[in-house]
Amino acid sequence: MKTYNLCLLGFGNVGRALLRLLQEKTVELRERYHIDWRLTGVATRRLGWLANPEGLDVSALLAEQFEHIQTVEAGNNVRDWLAAGKADALFELTSLNVESGQPAIEHIRAALEHGAHAITANKGTVVHGYHELQELAQRQQRRFLFEATVMGGAPIFSLFASSLPAANIVRFRGLLNSTSNVIIAEIERGKSFEHAVQTAQELGIAETDPSADIDGWDAAVKVSAIATVLMDAPIPLEQIEVEGIRHLDAAQVQAARAAGTPYKLVAQIEKNEDGIKAFVKPLPLPAHDPLAAVTGGSMLAHFELDVLPGLTITLDVPDNGPAGPLGPAVTAYDVLADFIRAVQSEQRV
Ligand SMILES: NC(=O)C1=CN([C@@H]2O[C@H](COP(=O)(O)OP(=O)(O)OC[C@H]3O[C@@H](n4cnc5c(N)ncnc54)[C@H](OP(=O)(O)O)[C@@H]3O)[C@@H](O)[C@H]2O)C=CC1
Ligand SMILES: N[C@@H](CC=O)C(=O)O
């Protein structure tokens, strides 16, 4: 059985949740999937480039006892660090950069060139680097996987890839941003905007810079990722009509809720012979609209396909589970599932 050397770049909400999940699933990974693992690299701007090819102390990392962690010299850049950690897989879990997807794209490029699989929750890499990184992965016979980037926790990209051959999306409508949904719900309950943002941050679902959520860009990036990967219609962000929830007036939000037509940040894509059009904007929705019933950090994606009139995927994310906030935990599951898929693709060769 192969022991995989895993390197984590970004050790925030999702990185920590992934490490906890890997610990929980160690025996299952070994017994069901013949995968053994050790953590050989962790890096963030604050921590620097930590590596040890014999394995880093996972419990000390999770307890933030960084001074107890034994490391080797790992240089001060991603390529030297991947080499020092003898990486077989990189988990790229750094913050979203809406404008360029960097430096995450460079991290993934480095991992693939090193010969490691690259798995990410960072949607900037898909919007700004999808074609280049897929081609590089194919040349290197490694996998670039990104299931967690849209509706972290739910299968979207892998579902289409594995179970919906020759199906073409003609319309998509969904609620793709948990943070704005939590913020709107808090405002409906009479909380201030600042308090509402803080609640989303405490749940671990807000972006490092929450203005990406509030101003609609996180949802727009997800829209662009769906169009690029699933609709073969890369739509640049500047061609998406984007309006966030910042300007929504509390009284207006509360009145809409009282009237049974709550505001939701709706994402929509339509493709026809004239091309592709997409928007992200807050809309009051009638009670019978399935999007109106999506609560808290939950999300919904509704696809209309040429072969299926309607396919809806709902991801229920209650705020907290026994071990804390569930948003990052369900996202970590998608990352783990991608890792298993990457290894299985090697095992099939
Ligand atoms: N949280 C969620 O529910 C979900 C998150 N995602 C995506 O997952 C990614 C991580 O999210 P999350 O864990 O919540 O974010 P956090 O803000 O909690 O953590 C981000 C981590 O990345 C590190 N980081 C940021 N920039 C760099 C850089 N240039 N070089 C090295 N390290 C860097 C930060 O550490 P430091 O500041 O020390 O560098 C920190 O450890 C994001 O791209 C997000 O969009 C996707 C789906 C759901
Ligand atoms: N900030 C995002 C996290 C997942 O992508 C959200 O709120 O949906």
Automatic annotation (TrEMBL):
Keyword annotations: Amino-acid biosynthesis, Methionine biosynthesis, NADP, Oxidoreductase, Threonine biosynthesis
EC number: 1.1.1.3
Domain of life: Bacteria
Taxonomic lineage from the root: Bacteria, Bacillati, Chloroflexota, Ktedonobacteria, Ktedonobacterales
Domain Homoserine dehydrogenase catalytic: start-end pairs: 155-340
Protein name per the record: Homoserine dehydrogenase
Family membership: Belongs to the homoserine dehydrogenase family.
Native species: Dictyobacter formicarum
Domain Aspartate/homoserine dehydrogenase NAD-binding: start-end pairs: 10-147
Cited Pfam families: Homoserine_dh, NAD_binding_3
Reactions mediated catalytically: L-homoserine + NADP(+) = L-aspartate 4-semialdehyde + NADPH + H(+)
Pathway: Amino-acid biosynthesis; L-methionine biosynthesis via de novo pathway; L-homoserine from L-aspartate: step 3/3; Amino-acid biosynthesis; L-threonine biosynthesis; L-threonine from L-aspartate: step 3/5
